[in-house]
Amino acid sequence: NHLRHVESMSLLPSGAGKISQLNAVVLGESIASEENDLVFPSKEFSTQALVSSPQQYMEMHKRSLDDPAGFWSDIASEFYWKQKWGDQVVSDNLDVRKGPIHIEWFKGGITNICYNCLDRNVEAGLGDKTAIFWEGNERDVDASLTYSELLHQVCQLASYLKDSGVKKGDAVVIYLPMLMELPIAMLACARIGAVHSVVFAGFSADSLAQRIIDCKPKLILTCNAVKRGPKTINLKAIVDAALDISSKDGVSVDICLTYDNSSATTRENTKWQNGRDVWWQDVVPKYPTSCEVEWVDAEDPLFLLYTSGSTGKPKGVLHTTGGYMVYTATTFKYAFDYKSTDVYWCTADCGWITGHSYVTYGPMLNGATVVVFEGTPNYPDSGRCWEIVDKYKVSIFYTAPTLVRSLMRDDDKFVTSHSRKSLRVLGSVGEPINPSAWRWFYNLVGDSRCPISDTWWQTETGGFMITPLPGAWPQKPGSATFPFFGVQPVIVDEKGNEIEGECSGYLCVKGSWPGAFRTLFGDHERYETTYFKPFAGYYFSGDGCSRDKDGYYWLTGRVDDVINVSGHRIGTAEVESALASHPQCAEAAVVGVEHEVKGQGIYAFVTLVEGVPYSEELRKSLVLMVRNQIGAFAAPDRIHWAPGLPKTRSGKIMRRILRKIASRQLEELGDISTLADPSVVDQLISLADV
Ligand code: ATP
Ligand code: MG
After folding, report:
1. Which one of 199, 203, 318, 459 would you pick to mutate in the ligand 1 pocket, going by the greatest count of ligand atoms within 8 A of its CB?
2. Is the Cβ–Cβ distance between 441 and 290 less than 8 Å?
């Protein structure tokens, strides 16, 4: 049956658009020979899917590149525009040699993304449909809102904001945990044309202050405290400290609207500054449940968001309204094969781009039912996610490899004791997902039934760039597969020459797509230098990538992290996934260290499965694993036992810190304040010589 599927692919016309590498996949032979690596969607899945064959994908992708204006206009027309965009759907300059980088989509079109998420859906009859299922930190604490109720709450807050003097174009900082008030706050800002800047409510006062100083908000939205797992975090105290720091820098914020989160603390225990601080519940419910929409230009800014800072100082990424709206809605719909009956859960926090595009905007533009979870995936135990899946009958579950790996460390019974039969599609984002984690996710969590959308994208790209369409293509564990509609990834060599066919190099993008960021806030020069100057004529992602003989894309990690061993360029992802395929290894992170003979040697930090002790024998078998899977040249020179790894608050490994530990440059660790748990650094240093 699979082979027949492959054969029918080989009947496709060879002119599959500009993405010539895709032609490789239609040569049935190569696929058949690698059949073990291919995971096909079931016939039932493909038949009901929005895109159900490679051929259908290729036709749509070809059209999206041949006629981007027509392709995206057709989709944009499904939304409400107060006034249609001008004649030019897209205008861009992506070549620094031709002048300033400049991107515009649907310029002249007048719309509002909040209206399209809420009012439009309510008018279409979805008023009584559940918009949000909210699950609290504790098992028995939950709530929900229909689309009508959500609209009312958004309007009340929007009316309050307006009344407090927030105007179109003003910045508003949101420092809230995953309460329903967080998406409500984002939508309320969008409704009145204010520019929201969500700061993940796990950041320190310093990090928050930095961002406040950068965007100078009129108002900040927060809550007094939150419970995360067994811990209580006093967010208001962090905000107070941040506002002290920022006012010393000359940036003062007039209003701090504070949600009273009574499940975590009391008003009496919350420090208060009269005149500045206002209780949300005291003012917002008094406002009317309708609020006029501020109609904005497609190119008016929607939000400002800082990147997660894995590679250094976070960048203030600016997204605008129209293109972002069309792009997030479309990517959500196709990459998850969305159906109106789905219940969708993305575990990301709204403090990250994933929470912007795929908790709030993308799903709500589609009128989807979204689960918002306040707590953590291993509280009270490692079965919490699957408990929630069963409770709300979640059908699409989107998460990050770091979560998959952390749950893998624990007993499988935490998964198997829950039914999970509502699940239909799984998703992954944030880092390359190593094949062993992919297989665990696929086989165990999804009962070998649910395709995995391994979505490659960035804060900068606004939405998915390379992603499976779950019903269209057979998947390869660990590969993000093929480009989304309108996206032309290219792999270039050091000199910036495009390389065709099977190859590896620097991942760039040619041309523009509607969800692209328009600038770095207040620093267009850094925008050009970071993204458009390294390889003139292209957008440079900063990631390394290879393309196999079937045209599948494999992300290999940050190019800054590439290790050069005796002239072999080795991506971190490859070695890490070889180590992680060892049954006793839970997670690994590798970095390069200076090596007298080889130039660079491979230094591996390894976290073991719960309860497994370190031993010399285990060390040897880990090294052997890499030798066997990749080759002797990639064998780690050093294994460093790591009970925990330094990660950003979004769960990504910070290799720049590991590099310093590996080369014992401990005085140069740099800024470690954005780490989720800075104490792992000391722990690693103390284990350096074990
Ligand atoms: P900074 O740019 O400040 O260092 P960051 O790059 O971690 O932070 P994000 O925009 O949140 O901030 O992350 C985007 C990056 O995450 C990508 O460039 C890529 O390295 C990685 N990534 C995301 N999804 C995937 C995926 N599916 N496969 C491989 N890598 C991924
Ligand atoms: Mg980045």
Report:
1. 459
2. no
Q: Which two tokens stand for residue 500?
A: 């065709």
The pLDDT value given to residue 36: 53
Q: Which residues contact 270 (CB under 8 A, 6 or more apart)?
A: 224, 225, 236, 258, 260
- Amino acid residing at 511: G
Query: How far is residue 5's CA from residue 679's CA, in Å, rounded to a whole number?
Result: 52
For residue 355, which ligand has an atom nearest its CA? 1
Structure confidence by residue, pLDDT tens digits, 128-155: 999 999 999 999 999 999 999 999 999 9
Strand-pair category, 296-297 with 277-279: unpaired
Residue 542 CA, ligand 2 centroid: distance in Å: 7
Atom of ligand 1 nearest to the CA of 466: 27
Backbone angles phi, psi at 180, to 5 degrees: -60, -25
Q: How far is the CA of 298 from the centre of ligand 1 (A)?
A: 26
Cα three-residue angle 35-40-44, rounded to 5 degrees: 150
Beta bridge partners of 134: 143, 372
Percentage of the residues of the chain whose pLDDT score is greater than 70: 95
Catalytic machinery residues: 560
Distances (CA, A) of 88 to 73, 103, 108, 328, 569: 10, 12, 9, 21, 43
Q: What is the pLDDT of residues 475-492, one digit of tens each?
A: 999 999 999 999 999 999
CA 254/CA 232 separation, integer angstroms: 27
Ligand nearest to the CA of 651: 1
- Indicate which atom in ligand 1 lies nearest the CA of residue 650: 11
Which parts of the chain have pLDDT scores under 70? Answer: 1-36
* Residue found under tokens 């689960």: 371
Supply the angle between the helices 655-662 and 679-686 in degrees, to the nearest 10. 30
Instruction: Dump strand ranges (E) for 400-454.
Output: 425-428, 452-454
Among protein residues, the one whose CA lies closest to atom 23 of ligand 1: 430
List, as one string, the DSSP characters of 360-380.
IIHHHHTT-EEEEE-S-TTSS
* pLDDT at residue 204 in the model: 87
CA atoms within 13 A on the CB side of 643: 14
Which atom, in ligand 1's list, is nearest to the CA of 480? 27
Q: What residue ranges line ligand 1, CB within 6 angstroms?
A: 307-311, 314-315, 352-353, 428-432, 454-456, 458-459, 480, 541-543, 555, 558, 650, 652
Q: How far is the CA of 310 from the centre of ligand 2 (A)?
A: 7
Q: What phi and psi, each to the nearest 5 degrees, are found at residue 147?
A: -60, -40
